[in-house]
Amino acid sequence: MMSILENSKIIVDIDSCTKCEACVNECRFYYFDSDILCLDKKADDYCIECGKCAAVCPVNAITLKLHKDEILREIPTKENFPSFEFLGNLFQVRRSRRQFTNKPVPKELIEKILNIAGRYSATAWNQEKVYFTVVQNRETLKKLSEESTNQVKNLVRNFEDPQGRNTLETAFPPRFIKRLEGLIPAFKLFLKMIRKGIEVWRRDAEIIIIHSPKDALSPIENCTLAACQIMLAAETLGLGTCSLGYITAFFNVMRPVAKIVKLPLKHIAGYTLAIGYPKARYYRIPARKPLKVKWF
Ligand SMILES: Cc1cc2nc3c(=O)[nH]c(=O)nc-3n(C[C@H](O)[C@H](O)[C@H](O)COP(=O)(O)O)c2cc1C
Questions:
Q1: If you write DSSP's letter for every residue of 188-255 in order, what string do you get?
Q2: Residue whose C-alpha is closest to residue 246's, from 213, 281, 272, 267
Q3: Sign of CA dihedral 187, 205, 226, 280
Q4: What per-residue confidence (pLDDT) applies to 176?
Q5: Whose CA is nearest to atom 9 of ligand 1?
Q6: Which of 1, 63, 77, 184 is most buried (CB neighbours < 10 A)?
Q7: Whose Cα sits closest to atom 23 in ligand 1?
Q8: Residue 275: helix, strand or coil by DSSP?
Q9: What's the gap in Å between 98 CA and the centre of ligand 1?
Q10: Which residues are CB-neighbours of 6 under 8 A, at least 6 positions away?
C-alpha cells in the first residue's frame, strides 16, 4: 500500500520522497522528526495553498488537494524565457491607448489573456479572489457610457447648486467633497467633449472590469497587479489597453452604473481596462522623468 502523509490541504507520497529537504527549506510547515517527514498541524489553518512545496519537490511527491486534478507544468527552459532586453522592450512599448478601431476583439483572445496574465498574478495570502467582468456587447457598452454621463451631469449640477451641494456634503465625507471639487473642471470638459460625440469614459473600446470582494485582503492591489499583467500580455497579441480610472470610480460610487454589469454589491472594482485594436501607430517611446530612488 502507498504510504502517504496527509492533512486537509496536502498529500505527500512518502514512497517517492527522497528526504532531500527541499520542501522543509521552502515552507515552515514541513519538518523532519527522526528522519520522518511531518506536516505542522497549523498548516490545516494557515497553509495558503501557494503550491511552492509541490513546485520545489524534485520527484513530484507533493500534491495540493485543491489542484489534485491538474498536471503541473514544468518550468519553461531558459530559451523560452524573455531576456531583460526583450521584457524591457515590452515595458517601454506598452502605452495607454486612447484611440481604438471598431474591430471587435475575439472572445478567445481575451480569455487567453485572462487565463494566463489574469489568473497567474500575485494575490495577498494567495486568496485568488480576483474576478473579471468583460463587456463586449455594444449595447451594454453604450449603456455604460450613457449612464456614466448622466451620473456625472447630475453630480456637476448638484455640486453647483447650493441645495444640491448641501445634500452631497451630508451624504459624503469632507475628503470626498474636496476630491470632487478638484474633479469638477475635468468633468465639465468631458461633458463638452461628449456633446461633440467623443466617448471619453471608456475610449469607445471594450472593457475588462477587475473586481474583488471588499473583505478580501488588499483587494485593490490584487486587481491592479492583474491589470498590469493583462496590459503587457495584450500588447504581445497586438492589442492595446488603457487604464480607466474614472469608470472604475463610477462602478464603486454610482450604483446605477455598476448595476448595468451586475457588479456584486459586496465587490469593489479595483481596476478597469479598455481593450481593443489600436488605431494610431507610435514611432517613438515617450521619455520619462528621471528615476526617483533613495538608497540606504
Ligand atoms: C490608475 C490609473 C488610472 C487612469 N485612468 C485613466 C482614464 O480614466 N482615462 C485615460 O484616458 N487614461 C487613464 N490613465 C492612463 C494614464 O493617463 C497614463 O498611464 C499616463 O498618461 C502614462 O501613459 P502610458 O500609460 O502610456 O505610459 C490612467 C492610468 C492609471 C495608472
A1: HHHHHHHHTT---SSTTSEEEEEEEETTSSSHHHHHHHHHHHHHHHHHHTT-EEEE-HHHHHHHHH-H
A2: 272
A3: negative
A4: 87
A5: 244
A6: 63
A7: 96
A8: strand
A9: 9
A10: 12
Q: Which residue has the cell 505542522?
A: 40
Specify the 3-state DSSP secondary structure of 257.
Answer: helix
Which residue ranges have their beta carbon within 6 Å of ligand 1? 95-96, 98, 242-246
Separation of alpha carbons 246 and 264, rounded Å: 19
Residue 21 zone, left/alpha/beta (φ > 0; ψ -120 to 50; rest): left
Handedness of CA 62, 64, 68, 74 (dihedral sign): negative
How far is it, in rounded angstroms, from Cα 235 to Cα 151? 32
pTM over 0.85: yes
Q: Which residue reads 504510504 in cell numbers?
A: 3
CATH 3.40.50.720 given to domain 4-67: no
Q: What is the rounded distance in angstroms from the CA atom of residue 129 to the CA atom of residue 228?
A: 16
Q: Does domain 78-296 have CATH number 3.90.25.10?
A: no
The CA 286 to ligand 1 mean position distance, Å, reads 14
For residue 61, the number of C-alpha atoms closer than 13 Å in the C-beta half-sphere is: 21
CA 204 to ligand 1 centroid distance, Å: 15
Per-residue pLDDT of the chain (296 residues; tens, 9 = 90+): 779 999 999 999 999 999 999 999 999 999 999 999 999 999 999 999 999 999 999 999 999 999 988 888 899 888 889 999 999 999 999 999 999 999 999 999 999 999 999 999 999 999 999 999 999 999 999 999 999 999 999 999 999 999 999 999 998 899 989 999 999 999 999 999 999 999 999 999 999 999 999 999 999 999 999 999 999 999 999 999 999 999 999 999 999 999 999 999 999 999 999 999 999 999 999 999 999 999 99
- Cell numbers linked to 168: 452631497
